[in-house]
Design goal:
By secondary structure, the protein is α/β, with parallel strands linked by helices. Helix content is 43%, strand content 25%. Helix 2 links the parallel strand 1 (27-33) and strand 2. Residues 5-23 have low confidence and may be disordered.
Length: 251
């Protein structure tokens, strides 16, 4: 056998080994609420280094993700921004097992230093103030915003002052960062990620604390691996350190 043939065989061998390893590499699909995006981006890297299992993250509003799940009926995990969306997923027979993950509280967020001098929820209707919320039908924070203001008796007035509705809490936060809106309702943990955002204390908002919740989907073809990642997310010391570093209070 000629030298060139031997080299060609070696190349073919290594290509076949590489393809086999790629085929054997496991990955999980996690439908993830935007509120926990900063944490998950770090935790999945840690998990990959430890296990070799890749976690593919699909971000969105909790309601949008749930709608996608109901249609697609595939994937491995669902992480909702509050327990109500997880309860809906359970009702639709999509969830094998679920656990609360982190506590989150809605806050009235303003551009840093509060240039519009927002002091309470009624101030969002002041002339010249641009008020943004997440879509109540698409995102958990949007749904909570509406529920809070209905409960306080402010919704009928405030809904007419909304300058823009956006898909996720991240979109509202980025709009505040870019100063395309002046005030919005976001999660406290999200506000912590932005130096360009301040918050205004609204006491009754604290009554609407929620818990981001993670669940394994019945559609998962890798249930064992999905349960193992959920356990890592909830209990592993390295995962907990990331949550703590980024200002999230685990359940």
């Amino acid at each position: 056998m000629g030298k060139s043939c031997i080299i060609a065989l070696f190349i073919l061998f290594f290509l076949m080994v590489g393809c086999k390893k790629k085929q054997e590499q496991k990955s999980l699909l996690l439908y993830c609420a935007a509120v926990v995006k900063p944490v998950l981006e770090e935790v999945v890297k840690v998990y990959y280094k430890e296990t070799g299992i890749q976690i593919d993250l699909q971000y969105g509003g909790s309601g949008t993700l749930l709608a996608n799940l109901r249609i697609a009926k595939q994937g491995d995990l669902y992480l909702s921004a509050d327990a109500s969306y997880m309860q809906q997923a359970i009702k639709y027979n999509l969830i094998k097992e679920s656990k609360p993950l982190v506590a989150i509280t809605p806050v009235l967020a303003v551009v840093v230093n509060n240039p519009k001098q927002i002091k309470n929820i009624k101030d969002v209707c002041t002339e010249g103030v641009r008020f943004g919320i997440a879509n109540p039908d698409a995102a958990s924070i949007g749904s909570v915003t509406k529920n809070m203001l209905v409960a306080s008796g402010d919704w009928d007035t405030v809904k007419n002052c909304i300058y823009v509705q956006m898909p996720t809490v991240s979109d509202v936060s980025n709009a505040l960062k870019l100063k395309t809106i002046d005030v919005g309702v976001i999660w406290d943990v999200t506000a912590n990620q932005y130096k360009e955002i301040d918050t205004v204390k609204i006491d009754f908002f604290n009554e609407f604390k929620e818990y981001a919740t993670v669940g394994v989907l019945k559609s998962s073809k890798q249930e064992k691996e999905a349960l193992e990642f959920m356990s890592f997310l909830l209990h592993n010391a390295k995962s907990k350190r990331v949550f703590k570093k980024l200002g999230y209070n685990m359940y």
